[in-house]
Design goal:
It is built from 8 helices and 7 strands, in the order βαβαβαβαβαβαααβ.
């Protein structure tokens, strides 16, 4: 399949995990890429790796903090200046933040997590939708979480931000369907990326691998998800095949959110 021939796909959080996996999937199917992340070294590594796996791929990278509105305008402008359009947007960058009961959850931590995971997604939507509306087409996938559709515990900032992403997705899906723009969210469960490894290390130190096994024993499929499985879902939602799916929040979690 070559679902992204001549398409430009913009991805935030492109230096790692789910962003990297989605980038590979759409690049294999012909997309040109604009990858955005705070971590420029990570972006350069991912760019090299993608160029070795997909030799004719065209990639630009933009170092930016998605919680900064001006930086968001800049990454959107740079993408349009270089490629002339944005067909797909994976609005994905996020952090988990420190885990704590609500009474012990730091207010600064709460603001930081919401700033990145929710305000960052809002800024991305605001400036990319402006471009897509003028084009008369586009598709957007926001990254929510299982923690955005049910209570997980110890994650006030994360839960608030990801429930907010679900709200933004439904609201903007209703607004922009008339412009031939589909906007959906994915709600991943535990997918083995740097973020999950970091969180297990925070909980269990050197015993993080055993803690991980115990954690996923509660999942109906008894395993972590793989980043490439999320990459396939994102590619489908960004493709024309999914054009009539709009305002939806799609879990990818082995069934965890239905237990
Ligand atoms: P990851 O840590 O591997 O990748 C996240 C990327 O986002 C990193 O490259 C990081 O540098 C970047 N980033 C963080 N803050 C940023 C900022 N302010 N500006 C720009 N870039 C920033 O983690 P991941 O698992 O790939 O997470 C991607 C998204 O998926 C996040 O929104 C996360 O909340 C969500 N998610 C992940 C899981 C999971 O199990 N891995 C589950 C549910 C939701």
């Amino acid at each position: 399949m070559n679902r992204f021939e001549n398409n430009v796909v913009l991805i935030t959080g492109g230096a790692s995990g789910l962003g990297q996996a989605a980038a590979l999937q759409v690049a294999k199917e012909g997309a040109k890429l604009s990858l955005v992340d705070l971590n420029d070294d990570g972006l350069q590594d991912v760019k090299k790796q993608l160029e070795s796996e997909v030799p004719d791929v065209e990639i630009i990278t933009v170092e930016a903090d998605v919680s900064d509105e001006e930086a968001t305008k800049n990454y959107v402008n740079k993408t349009v200046e270089h490629f002339g359009r944005i067909d797909g947007f994976f609005n994905n960058a996020g952090i988990e933040g420190k885990q704590n009961l609500t009474e012990d959850y730091g207010s600064d931590e709460f603001r930081k997590v919401v700033d990145i995971n929710l305000n960052g997604v809002f800024y991305g939507l605001k400036y990319v939708l402006d471009v897509m509306k003028r084009q008369g087409s586009g598709s957007i996938v926001n990254t929510a979480s299982v923690g955005g559709i049910r209570g997980v515990g110890n994650q006030s900032g994360y839960a608030a931000s990801k429930h907010g992403v679900v709200g933004l997705t439904r609201n903007s899906g209703v607004e922009y369907g008339q412009y031939n723009i589909s906007i959906n969210a994915i709600a991943p469960g535990a997918i083995m990326t740097a973020m999950v490894e970091g969180s297990l290390k925070q909980m269990a130190g050197d015993n993080w691998e055993e803690a991980g096994e115990e954690f996923v024993s509660a999942n109906p499929m008894k395993r972590f998800g793989k980043p490439e499985e999320v990459g396939h879902l994102v590619a489908f939602l960004l493709s024309d095949q999914a054009n009539f799916i709009n305002g939806s929040v799609i879990p990818i979690d082995g069934g965890q959110s239905f237990k």
